[in-house]
Hints:
- This protein is 25% helix and 34% strand.
- The chain has 3 helices and 6 strands; from the N terminus they run H-E-E-E-E-H-E-E-H.
Amino acid sequence: MAFDEKLSDRIREALAEVPVVEEKRMFGGVCYMVDGKMCVGVVKDEMMCRVGPDIYEEALKKRGCREMDFAGKPMDGYVYVNGDGMQTSEQFAYWIGLCLQYNPKAKAAKKKLTK
């Protein structure tokens, strides 16, 4: 299934002034990497947010938010937000802000060695 291009455009626009943003196709959707680290993305019609483990439980209580489970395994510090949780520009900005706030603390994925 394709991902929500309009949501991706919204995210791209929100990150326009952020330095060092890279767009990568993954999870059957798109992920926006900030400083080489997963930050925010789109999977199907939901926004994937890397909010970090410290605010994870609080984030799950927000409208439209659920745990991110990849291949049946919950990913600590990552959540999905559906349309109910980002109807207004304020709600959308809240999630983008959480992702950008956590990004400097996040660890980059280990690079795979190529032979």
